[in-house]
Amino acid sequence: MLAYVLMLGFAIISIGLAGIATSRHFIIMVVSVELMLLGSSLLALSSFYYYSGNVLLLLLAIWSIAAIEVMVAVVLYRYLERAELSLDVGRLSKLRD
Amino acid sequence: MLFAIFAVLAFIELLAAALIFLFKNVMHSIIMLAIAFLVGSLLFAALQQPLLALLQLFVIVGGVLTYFFIGVASAGLSKFKHTYYLPLAVLAIASFLLLAYASIGINTAGSNVLTRQMIANYVGSSISVLYMLAIVLFGVGLGAIELLKKLGAE
Fold first, then answer.
1. Where are the alpha helices (DSSP H) in chain A?
2. Min distance B77 CA to chain A CA atoms (Å)
3. CATH of the domain at A58
4. Range of A86's domain?
5. Quick check: ipTM above 0.90?
């Protein structure tokens, strides 16, 4: 059972990692990072569940990172919309040109 | 029974994670992320951690993702093809096999179910290496994107 839980966690991390690398949308990249955090929290829980220990502090740290990142992403998203800038990160990188 | 529940929840969670990138509308992608976190909280409950399940449900799904959803919805919608599907699938499968190799065969015999070879160390001693490997892969992915941009790829 442990192996399957770990495989699920790694699968979610892999999907998030691939999403960051292949996505052009700003929000989708943030969502991909959230997916990686979900996978890492599942891995942490399964490891502590099978090998004993307290996982609450680690999970609170992971959730705090996720929450702060979402707040920053929403603020940036609203700024980009208000400034009528594209959400395509490929075009955003050409702004300096 | 527990394994059957886990299998169903795992399938739904992976499906929701994949659908995030298949939907063009970003609101649908955020809904899929909320479903993935919701099923994740159910998995926490299945692993006999009800407090953590409720925390994830209330804090992440009820608070953070609701804020995300409303924040994105109030600013405007965007629909364009934002993900390259084939590189997504190839990179996801390759990184999963790389990350999960040591954990695929964890059983009482400690051998990999695919290759039937004994794993010298159990996942508990190698998980830190796998985390470091994940961070390295992340850096490689970002570096590849920057390199492609410098080479003039769209």
1. 2-22, 26-51, 56-82, 89-92
2. 9
3. 1.10.287.3510
4. 2-92
5. no
